[in-house]
Amino acid sequence: SAVISQKPSRDICQRGTSLTIQCQVDSQVTMMFWYRQQPGQSLTLIATANQGSEATYESGFVIDKFPISRPNLTFSTLTVSNMSPEDSSIYLCSVVDRGHGYTFGSGTRLTVV
Amino acid sequence: GNSVTQMEGPVTLSEEAFLTINCTYTATGYPSLFWYVQYPGEGLQLLLKATKADDKGSNKGFEATYRKETTSFHLEKGSVQVSDSAVYFCALSNSNSGYALNFGKGTSLLVTP
Lengths: 113, 113
Known about the structure:
The complex is a heterodimer.
Chain A: E1 4-7, E2 10-13, E3 19-25, E4 31-37, E5 43-50, E6 56-57, E7 68-72, E8 75-80, E9 89-97, E10 101-104, E11 108-112
Chain B: E1 3-6, E2 11-14, E3 19-21, E4 23-26, E5 32-38, E6 44-50, E7 56-59, E8 62-65, E9 75-77, E10 86-93, E11 102-103, E12 107-112
Parallel strand pairs in B: 2-12
Antiparallel strand pairs in B: 1-4, 3-9, 5-6, 5-10, 7-8, 8-9, 10-11, 10-12
């Protein structure tokens, strides 16, 4: 199955700053998804990032706040911009892994102070 | 739209007890169904999946059967172990969601010796 390297694993950031999260996949994948998991909660889809097209954002998430890049079939970044304490969450990327369901990165635990 | 409903937790069981975690869904067409597990301090792992009606997914002693008539995918295990303590997420995907996973709220399981 696919292996995803997600970085950073955790960070503590000042409010008003931005953080870029990277996901590198060891194989080419078409579909990639970004999720947020707030403390003690389930996973909420932020956006779908397919290579060669603009990311598609879910209701409540906007490109200015969460810009995404998907330059090729093995890599994507999610930026959390102008952060506030409410952005403190775990952010995860996920890919469709043929025959294996969906594979997730290990997550980025973000704390905004 | 798609939705997944899981039984509320936390669920506390003694070792070797029988486990059932209920999951029902709302979706059009024929979604694929999944159970994911999140052990304390770790990332999401696929536990089992089923892609069509009457399919049974199984792994590590856990089972779930895709019941189209009752729109359910209940997770069962005949004899739980302390090491099964984790949060369990039911999820589905279909073309309506752009093949992103829609998650239930998660059920926390604690198994005591």
